[in-house]
Structures are given as structure tokens and as C-alpha cells.
Amino acid sequence: MSQLQARDLTRSYGRTPALRGVTLDVDEGEIVAVTGPSGCGKSTLLHCLAGILRPDAGEVIWRGERLDTRPEADRSRLRRTEFGVLFQFGQLVAELTAAENVALPLLLAGTGRRAARETALSWLERFGVAELADVRPGEMSGGQQQRCATARSLVTGPRVLFADEPTGALDTLTGEQVLTTLVRLAREQRTSVVLVTHEPRIAAYADREVTLRDGAVEHSGLELNVPSTGGAR
């Protein structure tokens, strides 16, 4: 059984349907790219899978149990522990340094301050931005901010990372550098990734591509057999 499942999800905003009966499975360690034109429901699907939104109908099943019916407190706890979430613009806390931003999920989960900082520093080093540990986001470039945000999304060793257009605000070279590192580290710790993108070159990093159109699955994708080190085809 797949560890994360969506069954016949529907979701509307007022009278505008965003999802129309979407069914999707994500296996452990699998990287799935969700693609499609703007407004097709990609981000809504990701937010339902991550427990940020509740679907109007259908089910989200996490490791054999309903996720969508859990209280908000339980879903928030999952996003601090077993899930990681990465957005297009990183959404770092402006008042905190890079190390403090990356350590934040660990601190919220009860890790001691010294241990959280040490772990945060090791993740900043993996993304090549260790020298920014005591720098605040306003003093960083967009690429540096996104590297820090990506480190933060992986610092707890999540079982699933939800990435919503994570390179959309970056230039081509910087975006591919960030994504290459993300994919490599996710594979190392067997983290599944649900990657929302409208760019074919970014979708090429995934094992499988699922295409949405008008809120429904147009194509469920075939395994692409990407090498374990990651990288575009």
C-alpha cells in the first residue's frame, strides 16, 4: 500500500471547482511531479495532501489512516514532524538568522536549542550556505534564501516533502542547483517528494509525472527511472 493516498478529492472555492475527483498514490521514497497549466488545481491538491486544506469530498490517507478528518492540531503536528513544506518564495522568518530559521522546526518539536543549532548548521552546509548561518533573510539573495528554506523543509527528516513551485522565483541555473541538491538529499533519506511545477525541465527530476487539467488527472505518469543521485533527464 502506498504511504500517501488521495481518493476522489473534490475542492471548490465558492462556485469555482479546483479539484474534480482526483485520485493519486505516492510511494515511500518516490518523487512525483504534479504538472499542468496555471489554475488547474496543482497547489490545491498539494495543500490537501499536506493537510493544509480539507477537501470538500474524498479522502486523504496517510499510512493507512484518514488525514483529512483529523483536527487541525494533529495536522499541524504532522507538518512539523513527518511532513515538510517548501513554498515558491521560501517564507523565511525575516527576524531570524538562517540558522535560527532552519532550527525552528526542531525547536517546535522539542529539540534542545544547542542540538537544534548544530543540526541546522549541518543542513546549511549541505546546501552550500553555511557562511550565512548568522545572516538574516533580508541580506541574502533569492537563491540563498531558497537554499535556507529547502534546508529547513528537510531538517526534521520528513517522510514526505511537499514543494510548491520551489524554483519558480529563481533563475534557471540557481533553480536547478537548488533542485539537484534537494533531490539528492531527499533520496539519501528516503523522503517522498510531491513537487508542483509547470516547468517540464523541473518535472524531469521526478520519478513520475502526474498531469492535471481543469481539476482532474489527465495523465497519471509512468516511472521515469531517474538515477538514485537525482538530476534532470
Please, could you describe this protein's structure?
The strands form two sheets. The protein has a six-stranded mixed beta sheet with strand order 6-7-8-3-9-10, sandwiched between helices. A four-stranded antiparallel beta sheet has the order 2-1-4-5, with helices on one face. Helix 5 (142-154) packs parallel to helix 6. The protein has helices spanning 42-49, 72-81, 98-108, 113-126, 142-154, 172-188, 200-203, and strands at residues 4-13, 16-26, 31-35, 57-62, 65-66, 83-86, 160-164, 192-196, 208-213, 216-219. It has seven helices and ten strands. Residues 223-233 have low confidence and may be disordered. The protein starts with a strand and ends in a 14-residue tail after the last strand. It is α/β, with parallel strands linked by helices and 233 residues long. Helix content is 33%, strand content 25%.
Q: Which ranges are low-confidence, i.e. pLDDT below 50, for 5 or more consecutive residues? A: 223-233
Main beta-sheet annotation: 6 strands, mixed
Q: What is the CA–CA distance across the termini?
A: 28 Å
How does the overall form come out from the CA principal axes? globular
Helix percentage: 25-40%
Please give the count of helices.
Answer: 7
In total, the number of strands is 10
Q: Report the β-strand fraction as a percent range.
A: 15-25%
On the 0-100 scale, what is the average pLDDT?
A: 91
